[in-house]
Each structure stands twice: as structure tokens, then as C-alpha cells.
Design a protein that fits this description.
Strand content: 15-25%
Largest sheet: 5 strands, antiparallel
Number of domains: 1
Radius of gyration: 18 Å
Helix content: 25-40%
Shape: globular
Number of helices: 6
Order of helices and strands: HEEHEEHEHHH
Number of strands: 5
Oligomer: single chain
């Protein structure tokens, strides 16, 4: 978990955990442990410290969730004015599954799942992009690719899957969108 969380620093982010939780048995249970880190708790919110604290009670039937933020380019349209782009923090959730959590859900989900949130910053499918917008979307996709490659290269994982809520292959959707903006 520490290694996965630290890979976000390679994507130009200061790796800092903003929240941590430990869920017993299944997602239906109340978290056994939960902490939201304040802005001034820099040392306590390092990946090493946050994971060590959350996993003090380590069980095979727990899931451990860590939230961090990374900056993505977002489109901001205000009152019919020309749209502007700015970097905004977006939440990323990294979850480590114990082998007995949620009846062995890790067999289907993997031992570590990273939820990058909505795919909107990477696709903006309903928006006609100008040159600036196309560059911002490309930067977002580049960050996504860089962090997923870093995780695969540095964390000893055997496979990865980019999945979206629509059920469609996100990698194919990203390629198609990038081809349209080039």
C-alpha cells in the first residue's frame, strides 16, 4: 500500500494521505478505524505513517482505504463566459483488500484497487475542445498513464485493468478521445 501511494509523487504530486479508514468484513459495516488528516499534519499523513496507523490491527477480513488528492485540469464555464481551465484537486481512493474481506472480493477486484473517480477529466466526451482544452485533457491522460505505469513497474503487480462505471473499456475510450483531439 505504501509503495502504491508513493507512486503519485512521480505524477507531480506531493504524496500525502488525506483520509484513511479500515472496514471490517464488508462495505456494509461501519469503519473500525477512520481518520481525516488536517493540513498541518504533514508527517502523520505520509504514506508510511498513515498505513502503519490504519493497519495496527491487521485482519484478513478487513479492507483498508486511503484517500489522497492529485491535481487535474478541470473545465470551468461560468455564466456563459468563455470556458477556462484550471487545476483542481481530485480525490483518488486506494483500497487494499484482505483475502477474506467481503467473501473474498479481492479475487474479482484484485488485492489493490485504485479509484480515480469520474472519467470526465480524462474524456470530456460531450465537450468540443479547442487547442487549450485538448492540451489539458492530454495532460490529465498523461498523468493517469504515468501513475499506472509507475505502479506496475515499482509495486510488483501482475496485472492492471482500467475500468469505468459505464462498463466500457476505459483504455479504449481514452485512445478514441485522444485520437479525436489530435
Amino acid at each position: 500500500m505504501v509503495s502504491v501511494l508513493k507512486q503519485f509523487s512521480g505524477a507531480g504530486q506531493a504524496t500525502r494521505v488525506h483520509a484513511a479508514a479500515a472496514y471490517p468484513i464488508s462495505w456494509n459495516e461501519t469503519p473500525f478505524y477512520q481518520r481525516i488528516y488536517e493540513e498541518d499534519e504533514v508527517q502523520e499523513s505520509s504514506p508510511e505513517q498513515a498505513v502503519a496507523e490504519a493497519t495496527q490491527i491487521l485482519h484478513d477480513d478487513f479492507a483498508y482505504e486511503f484517500e489522497l488528492k492529485w491535481d487535474l485540469w478541470e473545465l470551468e464555464a461560468v455564466g456563459g463566459l468563455d470556458p477556462t481551465w484550471k487545476q483542481e484537486p481530485a480525490i483518488v481512493r486506494v483500497v487494499g483488500f484482505g483475502p477474506e474481506f467481503d467473501e473474498g472480493a479481492y479475487e474479482q477486484n484484485g488485492q489493490v484497487r485504485i479509484d480515480f473517480g469520474l472519467d470526465t477529466p480524462f474524456l470530456l466526451e460531450e465537450v468540443e475542445l479547442d487547442k487549450v482544452g485538448a492540451e489539458c485533457v492530454k495532460r490529465n491522460v498523461q498523468k493517469l498513464v504515468e501513475v499506472t505505469n509507475a505502479i506496475q513497474e515499482n509495486c510488483g503487480i501482475s496485472s492492471r485493468l482500467l475500468w469505468s462505471d459505464s462498463g466500457e473499456n476505459l483504455a479504449q475510450k481514452l485512445i478514441a478521445r485522444l485520437q479525436r483531439v489530435n
